[in-house]
Design brief:
This protein is α/β, with parallel strands linked by helices. The protein is 28% helix and 25% strand.
Amino acid sequence: MQKNYLQINKCPLCSCKTHKFNNLNIESYAFGIKKINIPRKIKIKECLNCGLFYKDLIPTKIFLKKIFNVHASSVWREKKLSYKYEKKQINQIFKDFNKKLNFIDFGCGSGDFINSIKKNNIIVSGVDVYKYERLKYIINGEFFNTFIEDKIISKYKYDLFTFFDIFEHLYSPNDLISNVINISKKNNSFIYIETGSSESVKNIGDWWYAKLFEHHIFWNLKSIKYLCKKNNLEIINYSIKQHKERMYMNKLKKLILFSLYFGSKLTFLNKILTRITKKDLNLVGNVYIQDHFQCILKIK
């Protein structure tokens, strides 16, 4: 089992080894219906230099891809999420939305965002480790079937790079930013990030977002500032928000999920509800809290 995991001894963002830590409160992972055993207790370390939180044991890329290839289509199926909030932010960046623009969505999944933003004058490309069949009908640019940080060679230079719930998957953030800058239009390009906010939770070891198998690192304003300073980026906008799937969730579904979350806190109820729903209720979380952030960075 140990060969499927990497031990992380220093911060993936700044390489510092000085940290404090919390234990991740799980005995095993779940990815859809797949139970994934772990070889030992996992610690979540907080880097005292840059502020990034990171797990000290993460799956190898080979193991991750093996799990994705079997189960990703059921876990990350098309959800038809609303991107009204994101499109409003993007409209503010590109006030002249009628000119020709090149966008690339990292971790594009089945193409929900691409499909919502695509126009005749916008070339939209995608990057994902798993290739969905419907992408060939949606993407009008290029598709790169690879891990997020892997170097890509594109025939385009891009105006906008989007990362919706992707920055928590990274193994090497600086490699990613280097790749992004190489295919950008430099000082006319922007990076749009949405990810979990580690500063918005009391105990990161109990956070539903940290209990996901494919999530390795967790960001906050301090770590984003460090990323920008190291890579010559400028923060244009930063704000705390809800997870995009929960922003537009109907009230009844929210109430049901909150009831499951509350019930899961009681051990005997957790077992009963897990058996009935066939879901890992530790991954539900409080659907009412704002535990994510969005930020827009400018490449200088």
